[in-house]
Amino acid sequence: xxxxxxxxxxxxxxxxxxxxxxxxxxxxxxxxxxxxxxxxxxxxxxxxxxxxxxxxxxxxxxxxxxxxxxxxxxxxxxxxxxxxxxxxxxxxxxxxxxxxxxxxxxxxxxxxxxxxxxxxxxxxxxxxxxxxxxxxxxxxxxxxxxxxxxxxxxxxxxxxxxxxxxxxxxxxxxxxxxxxxxxxxxxxxxxxxxxxxxxxxxxxxxxxxxxxxxxxxxxxxxxxxxxxxxxxxxxxxxxxxxxxxxxxxxxxxxxxxxxxxxxxxxxxxxxxxxxxxxxxxxxxxxx
Length: 287
Description:
Elements: E1 3-8, H1 13-28, E2 32-35, H2 37-42, H3 51-55, E3 61-65, H4 67-74, E4 83-88, H5 103-112, E5 117-129, E6 132-139, E7 142-147, E8 154-160, E9 163-170, E10 172-176, H6 184-187, E11 199-205, E12 215-218, E13 223-226, E14 234-238, E15 242-246, E16 251-264, H7 271-279
Parallel strand pairs: 1-2, 1-3, 3-4, 4-16
Antiparallel strand pairs: 5-6, 5-16, 7-10, 7-14, 8-9, 8-13, 10-11, 11-12, 13-16, 14-15
């Protein structure tokens, strides 16, 4: 019998209500459900588990919220590859493709093996200081190096496979997966990359040089971002949810993660239809 994982964006009343309905449905159908800690409290349950525990003990994992709700669990996948079923209650949902009224149909097709699935690659980022790894984490969307809010322009040195690329003078640098290409990368002027491609995107944030454009690189590359002397604050952000403060002399090594994530695709909308709907393509010309 599968063990369902359940995580909910607790601030959304409709998501909590659907979570309660899901618990009743699972009970009626003899499915065991384990909730993430904050989700358990929102549903009035006594016990919950951490996102890391859930990612490695539950399959499928159901997220009721937005992409961030799902990503908060997905990046902890390690070894096993559970199916992630995301139901969109957010504003922009590129990973949470399933509509609330499609949830139970999607569960049935997932358990029956007839659902449409999409495999997504992740990044692995680690902070190296004095030859030691001080921080490491997988990223579903992106790894971002950025300066503090009131600090001066940042300088970052990028190398790919030990070959120097350039020194960037900018507010930060986004290294994105194809999945994350529609997130921060898109806001910074980076390209939309189809999720099946084995590439990553390097996009500067507010580059001082107009000739520093986004780079599309093989995801099998080894990227290193070095931090020259700097008297401000610098941070590494993972998926906009986890962070680590960097220092001058550090470097961040970014490679393709050994783990990947499997998401349930929408039963009624294609990838390009989702792009059209979310980005309002063609809205101005009546198409």
